[in-house]
Amino acid sequence: MIKLDGGVFLMGTDSLEGFPFDGEGPVRAVTLDPFYMDACPVANLQFAEFVSTTGYRTEAEQYGWSFVFQGHIPNERFEDLVDARVTGAEWWCKVKGADWQHPEGPDSGIGSRANFPVVHVTWNDAAEYCNWAGKRLPTEAEWEYAARGGLEQKLYPWGDELTPGGRHLCNIWQGDFPDLDLAEDGYSGVAPVDAFPPNGFGLYSITGNTWEWCADWFHPEFHVTATRVNPVGPMAGAARVMKGGSYLCHRSYCNRYRVAARTSNTPDSSTTNIGFRCVRDVA
Question: Which of 21, 60, 237, 271 has the fewest CB atoms within 10 Å distance of its CB?
């Protein structure tokens, strides 16, 4: 874990790049206590240790299915594995037997993916792992402070240019979403947790690759009147905050790999592009 000093930073954005209905703005000065954060998202190897020690079964395993991106399902098994598609986002398929150990369905595995972020974990699963590890999920404010890496009001952890000098610094979609992924960044799916350079705080994979769960309940307007000191989000809600974007994000439909961007999902939802990392208080 990396110790982060906290202090005052400018959270949110008023940029025209943003989505006002998500509650990305206004820009506000937020004060945080120091905290520790995992340098990388929790990887399959770490999650396997948790499962081996505790016997924990993820919610996807209990349900018997999880959501998988259409392009990652073998054509010859598509009809057998897919029960349904999400209306309005038909690239998401309900796949029988998909879980953290079988990311693309029952015929897949993680044998060569020890250093890849664990996926198909719900918010509830992530919280259980954190409890076991003696850690917790980051608040949205902690996550955004950490992701900024010491820079102020930049679009990305490294600055305002997505590919400076033509160099890809995160794992997102290139091409025509959702049908053509050019994989110009080297990956057409999830990548190892340390595949790209860290930000200014030494944090890897903080943008793209997999969405990361935060502790907060999601609300598009709560933070307008909320405390500016160690904010924790509303006391209740229907969905939890996710930050960072994923390998499926593309400017054409989901320009949410920006540091200030935010979205949400219900705490019992799991997909092939959602993971998490942990934080710990400074004693």
Answer: 21
CA atoms within 13 A on the CB side of 43: 18
For the purposes of burial, counting CB atoms within 10 Å of the CB of 55, is it exposed (0-12), middle (13-18) or buried (19 or more)?
Answer: exposed
Q: What is the largest CA-CA distance in the chain?
A: 54
Distance CA 182, CA 45 (A): 29
CB atoms within 10 A of CB 223: 24
Can you read off the two tokens belonging to residue 104? Answer: 């693309």
Could you tell me the pTM of the whole model?
0.97
Pairing of strands 240-243, 274-275: unpaired
Instruction: Write out pLDDT tens, residues 38-85.
Output: 999 999 999 999 999 999 999 999 999 999 999 999 888 899 899 899
Number of H helices and E strands in the chain, helices first, is: 6, 14
Digit-coded pLDDT (tens) for 111-140:
999 999 999 999 999 999 999 999 999 999
Size (the chain), residues = 283
- Residue keyed to tokens 């796949």: 95
